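Hello again,

I reread your note about wanting to compare the complex against the isolated chains. To keep things tidy I'm splitting this into two emails, and this first one only covers the full assembly. Below are the input lines as submitted, including protein chains and any nucleic acid or small-molecule components. They are followed by the predicted structure of everything together. The single-chain runs will come separately.
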Amino acid sequence: MSALFIMIGASLLIAIGFLIAFIWSVKSNQYEDDYTPSVRMLFDNTTIQKKENEIKT
Amino acid sequence: MRNFALKLGPRMSTTTEEIKSKTACFHCGENCNDETINVDDKHFCCQGCKTVYQIINRNDLCSYYNFEKAPGINQKQTIRPGKFDFLDDKKIIQQLIHFKDQSQEHITFYLPQMHCSSCIWILEHLNKINPGIIRSQVNFIKKEVTIIYNFNQTSLKKIAETLALIGYEPHISLNDSNGNKIKKTDTSHIVKLGIAGFCFGNIMMLSFPEYFSFGKMEDSLKQWFNYLNLALSLPVFFYSASEFFISGYKGLRQKFLNIDAPIALAILITFSRSVYEILFQVGSGYLDSMSGIVFFMLIGRYFQNRTYQNISFDRDFKSYFPLGVVVIESDSSEKQVSVVDLKPGDRIKIHHEEIIPADAILFLGKATIDYSFVTGESLPVEKSIGEIVYAGGKQISGAIELEVIKEVSQSYLTQLWNNDTFKENGDDTKKSFIHQISQYFSYTLFLIAFFSATYWAFNDQSKMWNAVTSVLIVACPCALLLSSTFTNGNMIRILNKYQFFVKNASVIERIAEIDTIVFDKTGTITEQTQSEISFNGPTLSDSQNQLIRSLASQSSHPLSRSVLSCLPFYKIFNVKQYNEIKGYGTSGLIDNHDVKMGSYLYITGKQNASLVYGSEIYVSIDNEFLGYFAIKNNYRSNLSKIVDLLKKRFSLQILSGDNSTEELYLKTVFGIDTKMNFNQKPEDKLNAIKALQQKGSKVLMIGDGLNDAGALKQSDVGIAINDNTNTFSPACDVVMSGQRFHMLNELFLYCRKHKQIIYSSFIISIIYNFAGLCFAVQGDLKPVIAAILMPVSSISIILLTTGMSAWHEMKLKYKT
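Full-complex prediction:
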């Protein structure tokens, strides 16, 4: 049963790691604007865009 | 800052697809009247749009046009060169930027024109157009762009001009100057919620073995789990639950028992009893229930307070006034000065379409000032040299020069904000009926605890403390808090869907109690656009038009002015024997023709009762009846229908800053007995509301302009209505879109359901509480029972409130 003591302690430590990650993400304002990034990630790079234009013409 | 069309993409593309015609402007999508403006086989509606396209094209930014069809902003209205000259002033720059080091400055601009994903794209590629810009980042919801730039390579003024050049003119108002540091949103709430959730989950998991092992668990393991639970509960008790303790303590200090006080007591007792049980190894405590309930209550609070951040409810005149103004020095050179630094005696220059920042005397030029927003007068006023021009008006006929007579803060308009109404900052949450119920609830609870204590004191003293603490643990009014916060959160969310944005939850409760509704006229029950006028009858010849215009130019009556504005290009002749009879019409001899204009009775000599006064102007020349000008009244559509519905439940009133020309018409819509006051100054409106409240009425005011600001603030509920997505609205409790005006009655009825929903969910929670109390008074509350009751009751309350709010929403849906 002694393994359980260590395992539970270890699992808690990992969980606390995630909690800290969460707090960090909140503090660094990642939840400030939840709309714009969703649009931004759909933009292509300008260079790719230029090539496409060349193909079209 | 508001944006009624938050969802973009699909909505935008459907509207633009309708304009598939060949002649739609490639840049802004408007129809091209002139097909000669072409570049690269693309048509443009105006030179402005073409220029913007060329700039974008030259900088290889044409992907702008790939995300949305015709995403541009119409460029027909050009921006005056030198408009942003005030951004060269060091002092003004200092006030606007929020970060500076050796090479960089950071600035955030509000761009009301931002509307689609193409906008985001172009604004984040600004450095292609202006290389001095290092990085730009858009916050679409707030319609803001934060720009980091190298001030050695470019300047704030150049950036503002770059933005204006591609159609995104930044909106810079006096309000921005008051230390425009980035307002950090308070994230502690989310952190508290996260920690409570984390601890709750882990404590629950560590408690399960004990609940399901039925006493067969090893003692050492049990102890280890209990101590871990205790450690995990510390952040919940000391950090996450802190707001309940603080708020409860604050309430008690003001001798007010709010809902947080009994909750804090329950948390405190649960925690101390659990600590006692664990440390003395007599049990495992109720830590899982405690952290669970804190977690659920925090979710409720978060849900309730999550109002739209892009809507500002407490703006004053400062966000309407400009920041910089041109001052003419004694040597007639022009200098940019911050509006707050204006002194009496300064000579200022106001350009076309600019707002007058301070009370002043007209010195030079032709002033036509549109006061519709500040006073409610629907027609522009002409001023001649030497007359006083009040702050807040918008000059609409070219540039003028003024001499300031009062400082900005002392002007006729801004004085309204010195009124006491604006100083009170009432705590509206105190009045909520939730606190009332929670008080009754708490007293009952104390009684039950007291009786079970006395019973056990005589029967089995060892169980006495057990019973008392169990009663307080199981029956805290947290269910009541959950019902109210989740109901509020749901209702706010649903009302937002109908573009009815409430400031906070207590507003819904107050709307439910309203018995009197006061309307402003201009911009509220009328549309905020100018009225349209058209001629009905055989087409008039040019010479006839000249005669009519000549006659109309003589009168200052609003109807004559409207006729004048619809015949703008004709020459004006001399008018002889001019005669104006008030309420009837005007006549005159022009170029040997006898021209008459006025009511049906005045022109034909016959009565016609079916006609509505003031909406038609009849014309005759040489006693020959020609037809009439019909003024399409710009009242909101279905106004009379809405009024009829509202009249059944509320008493209605009109307070208008405009003159009383339309009183007769309004009486036909609102009924003879409706009280109407015209020519009301902002203070008059405020006092009128006050008088109504002193008679015991609960008043709701609906207005739009700065002149309503006092009345909106004084009233129990102030609703600012607005048609355009980027216009200013004064301080208020609710911002609503003009397009939803027809739903007013339904929206009010929906708010009235608020109490009903809270009561029904509260009854459910009482049933759970009763079940829990049955165990508690016997001094036999097992942790596992508490651990089951708590989440089950919380979740059923959440489901019930969500379901009921959605059910009542059906009526709103039906109306749209």
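For quick reference: The longest strand of chain B covers residues 624-632.

B.
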